[in-house]
# Entry
Amino acid sequence: MALSPLFHSNLPSLQFVLLVSIFIFSGSLYASDDPHLSLDYYASICPTVFDIIRKEMECEVLSDPRNAALVVRLHFHDCFVQGCDGSVLLDDTITLQGEKKASPNINSLKGFRIIDKIKNKVESECPGIVSCADILTIAARDAVILVGGPYWDVPVGRKDSKTASFELASANIPTADEGLVSIISKFLYQGLSVTDTAALSGAHTIGMARCANFRARISGDFETTSDKGPMSETYLSNLKSICPAAGGGDNNVSAMDNITPNLFDNSYYQILLRGEGLLNSDQELYSSILGIQTKQLVVKYAHDPISFFQQFSDSMVKLGNITNPDSFTNGEVRKNCRFVNT
Ligand code: HEM
Ligand SMILES: *[C@@H]1O[C@H](CO)[C@@H](O)[C@H](O)[C@H]1NC(C)=O
Ligand SMILES: *[C@@H]1O[C@H](CO)[C@@H](O)[C@H](O)[C@H]1NC(C)=O
# Structure
């Protein structure tokens, strides 16, 4: 992430070539606006579903605001693997290898119990009608609102998969120490844009990361990107006490937005402007020499919360629209989100 001004003049074209070639050669497996989804899918068959989910999420977020973050991330990790089809919710069984033990998820992804609880309530009201994938998508929207974020309408009508993919969970989900170009290519692969990448990363305005995911950053180039003022030095030494360079404390956590960790706002981008992003992947949006476009977007969202909210809403709908044709033809409405129907 070193910032060499020497490279600057060549970069727009380099970035263009890299991204265009990624786009051409990877393509997208999934249609990103599927005609099967609609706003009124449940209007006559389960009219109360949105109210049930909202009420449950209110309780969950009231009891712990972190629950909002857990559900939003769960939805993201669902949609990046076979589309938004509830595959992430499946437990391992003798005949099915789930995604929960894949490297981006193991010891990290949480919130399954919340979805189980909502599913139970929904099943008692409308048995066999509402997919787990839809519940997760709606719950993620409600989570964002409940911690102060924007509202958007959620298209519904997803089906739950009968399969999961450990391999795709390991391959498709970006990681904290991955470079910007590689991260962007994973979003393009899903039919999302560079703008979607920058806006959706703003979800890190809530929630926590484990020391294992930011140790390299705080013992490496945090000081290079930050202003080294007393505030950032205090923050850094605090992080180092939570997450010692020598090792240990791998599961110690810190908020990615240390200013307002439980509020969905644009302070995540202001932190990136100061060079104090917690994850390497966060800071790269602003500081990478390859991030011409993402840097402009970070500046924009840092100064204009309304444009961030609008773009985040649009990008969340696009994320939720990633659909797997196979789940539509062979999918089902699971009775229990953890298991394929028998
Ligand atoms: C841009 C690429 C992304 C990378 C590299 C990334 C990486 C990570 C990592 C490493 C963590 C901490 C996990 C842990 O330490 O256990 C995390 C947490 C989180 N991520 Fe991302 N993420 C990305 C994009 C997204 C997107 C698109 C969303 C949702 C729209 C999202 C939502 C979250 C949330 C809410 C948390 C906090 C979860 C909690 O509190 O447990 N992330 N992410
Ligand atoms: C998402 O899907 C819905 C329903 O298929 C469609 O109306 C909408 O235009 C899509 N939105 C985006 C941003 O792709
Ligand atoms: C985890 O963080 C706490 C402070 O929150 C610290 O006292 C403890 O030493 C850390 N654990 C390790 C193994 O460093």
